[in-house]
Amino acid sequence: MDYCIIKLIHIFVRKKFKVGYQVNKRKIINDPVYGFINIPGDFVFDLFEHPWVQRLRNIKQLGFTSFVYPGANHNRFQHSLGALHLMDLAIETLRNKGVIISSEEQEATFISILLHDIGHGPLSHALENSIIDGVTHEDITLLLMQKLNEANGGKLDLAIDIFKGTYPRKFLHELISGQMDMDRLDYLRRDSFFTGVIEGSVGSDRIIRMLNVVDDSLVIDEKGIYSIEKFLIARRLMYWQVYMHKTVLSSESLLANILKRAKELAAEGAELYATPALRFFLYNKIGLSDLTGNSGYTSDMIAEKFTMLDDSDIRVSVKYWVGNPDNVLSDLSGRLLRRALFAVELQNDPFPEQRMNELRILLGEKMNIGPEFDDYYVFTRSISNMAYTPDATEVKILLKSGKTADISTVSDMFEHRFLSERITKYFLCYPKECR
Questions:
Q1: Closest among 299, 306, 280 to 146, alpha carbons compared
Q2: To 10 degrees, what angle do helices 225-238 and 182-195 make?
Q3: Is residue 158 a contact partner of residue 104, using CB atoms and an 8 Å limit?
């Protein structure tokens, strides 16, 4: 008994005062998609534990897609963890096939894929370019990676080079951002799992086992061609069926208009409820030049404020804005909160101006909305979908002869036009009261 008491006191003192106490960094995590996975490496674990990465727990992977598929409540943190797991499998596979990858390159690639999404704002893509004008989540991600690099004495130098694609061994960047990157392999399988849209399910393990490297570029072994064909079809189907679903387009457009109106009111000096982080971006005009420190706002300040933002800042603010004296902000916020979304029409050709004018007239007659606010309620935009990422090289197949060929030349299913052609559709949003 005395020994047990002494042992408990010893453990308490070690934890309390960090005397000889070492954190266990060999964590095993049970992921609903892949089962048990681990965090590969001590420094990767340290970054995994960093508040900027943990913040991704509070950012939904698919924004308002749960309005359509109630199970789609997974978050960016889960996706980053899954992509890290797939990267671990990919590096192991390539090494087993004789591709030389140093331990430094391995760690840097793990870091790059773990951090590839830390620049996402609230509700993922729903507010892209809205929180900060003309700035993508990739811009913010690079800024935050550079800040982490400064804080860690340059330990992320190689990871940043791989992320940007400036490192000479291009296949490492292709694993992070390419036609068959680990980001894409995870989000298709994960989003399919949580939405229940089985058409999007891809055999990520099978594709990874088929990876190889020729002339510093990723290729797929010939026997994996059918898995790639299914992958490309699944990606196209997921875009139309999930990512660009009409309800998703309506809700995300509605939120963008809410934030636009809030920014206009803030610029006019109106007092709006907002969390401190959101207030900073509402009442200050931040652009791409600010990220490089070429203005009155330091990049440190922007990084600090941005990493305090997550979904809760937007949701709570919208909830309060329902009671705002501005009729437009109040009405739009109430619609989003009640899921009273705009009607959406989708077609292959642009909507004629006459159709728009008819809806604007109905808007004034039925809802008493002045013409100065028409654009908040009646608007048309376009969406595009491609099987391929435009700026990445075509998928190469490693033939049994040792030569490589574009998938469009060896596949029975695809031709180059199918892979490279951008399919554009147009959608029109308006209040259902104007039907």
A1: 299
A2: 60
A3: yes
